[in-house]
Amino acid sequence: MAKKLNLEILLLPIFLVLLISSKPYMASASIEEANALLNWKASFANQTQSRLPSWNLLSHKPSTTSPCTWFGIFCNSAGSVIKINFTGFGLNGTLQEFSFSSFSNLKYVDLHMNSLFGTIPSMIASLSKLIYLDLSNNHLSGEIPPEIGLLTNLQVLHLGQNQLNCSIPHEIGRLRSLYDLALYSNHLYGPIPDSLGNLNKLTYLYLYNNSLSGSIPLELGNLTNLLELDIDFNRLTGPIPTTLGNLNKLTVLSASQNNLSGPIPHEIGNLITLTALELSHNQLSGLIPKELGNLISMTFLRLSRNQLSGLIPKELGNLISLTDLRLSENQLSGLIPEELGNLVSLTNLELWQNQLTGSVPSFFGNLTNLEVIFLSHNKLFGPIPHEIGNLKSVVRLHFDGNNLSGSIPPSFGGLRNLAFLQLGENQLSGLIPEKLGNLISLIYLDLSENQLFGATNRTTVSHQAHEISDGPKVAQIPLFTTLFDHR
């Protein structure tokens, strides 16, 4: 007992020394961070300053200088700032007066959806422990500082929806811990750096809605943990690299609205987890790979406005989860494969402006979830199948600009949700069915350039159209138009 008491007496001075020496350090660090935040606050617009009443030094005593109770500020157990969060707060100011070097323990900065303007200072590289940086949805301009590549602990980097005007610095390829990179909706130009292929932990890469040019780097095929790749709305050229077939965890591949050329690589068929493939509005050519039929988890397949040719692969009938199929404005030919009748989840089918032949398939009547069918401007012939009348959910039927013949099926009168019916520029004949007057949702009807007749029916449909146009149907849709060519 005496030995234990003696030990406590001997250790007591050490504890006192540690206690006395640590307090000034903690207070000093806290004062520095508090003053740095107050200097930043002073640079804000007056309206923003007034919304931060808690950012205030109540006295000159060290015990009251900690910013840990201030709005938007979070500290660790030692009283040092580790997180700043002002999501959607309305901050109006810049980052120029923010003293990055004063925050040696800062890990999280979330300032997205504010009104920050000016540039991103290169001194941001002082935040050596930073894990999370979100400056998206602001008005930041200028360049992404190359020094950002020094933040080697960074896991999330969001700079989207600003006015950044620069190339993507290749130094971002040093951020080996990064799993989420979002640079969308800026004014970025130049190539996609091949150094991004070093980011093997990356799961989300969003570069869409910029002015990026050059080819898609082969090195993106190294990102085998990638779940979503979106490079829509840029100026990218050249082929789609076959290396993208290595991304076996990918769920979304979006590269529409570019100038990509060459064939769609059959290696895309290896991406069995893919749910959305969007390659519309490019200059892709060649056949639609039959290997796309392997992507049985696919819900969106959009290949419109390219230069694709040949047949629609029957293997697309394997995509039983597909809800949206868009192959319009290509050079596709041949018959509409009957295997598409398996796509019972389909709500949107767009095949217009191709060179498809044969008849309108009767199996369309089995796709009862269909809301939109665009078959316009092909070389389809024969009668319109009465089974189309089974599509009770259909809102738009566009069969115009073909060589369809026969009469309009009376079953169309049961399509109570139909808003647009375009049958013009065909060879339809006979009476206009009186039951078209039952189409209570109809906004636009085109029967022109056919051989239809029937004044009574014309009056009935026109009267119904007038009644519909007066009702509060669909916002920003023009009043009902009825086009006839009475012969």
From TrEMBL:
Leader peptide range in chain numbering: 1-29
**Gene Ontology molecular function: any one:** ATP binding
The record's GO CC annotations read: plasma membrane
Pfam families listed in its UniProt record: LRR_1 (PF00560), LRR_14 (PF23598), LRR_8 (PF13855), LRRNT_2 (PF08263)
Q: Which reaction does it catalyse?
A: L-threonyl-[protein] + ATP = O-phospho-L-threonyl-[protein] + ADP + H(+); L-seryl-[protein] + ATP = O-phospho-L-seryl-[protein] + ADP + H(+)
Q: Which residues cross the membrane?
A: none
| EC number in record | 2.7.11.1
The record ties this protein, via InterPro entries, to: Leu-rich_rpt (IPR001611), Leu-rich_rpt_typical-subtyp (IPR003591), LRR_dom_sf (IPR032675), LRR_N_plant-typ (IPR013210), LRR_R13L4/SHOC2-like (IPR055414), PGIP (IPR051848)
Residue ranges annotated as coiled coil are none
Q: Which residues form the Disease resistance R13L4/SHOC-2-like LRR domain?
A: 98-258
Recorded family membership: Belongs to the polygalacturonase-inhibiting protein family.
Q: What is this protein called?
A: non-specific serine/threonine protein kinase
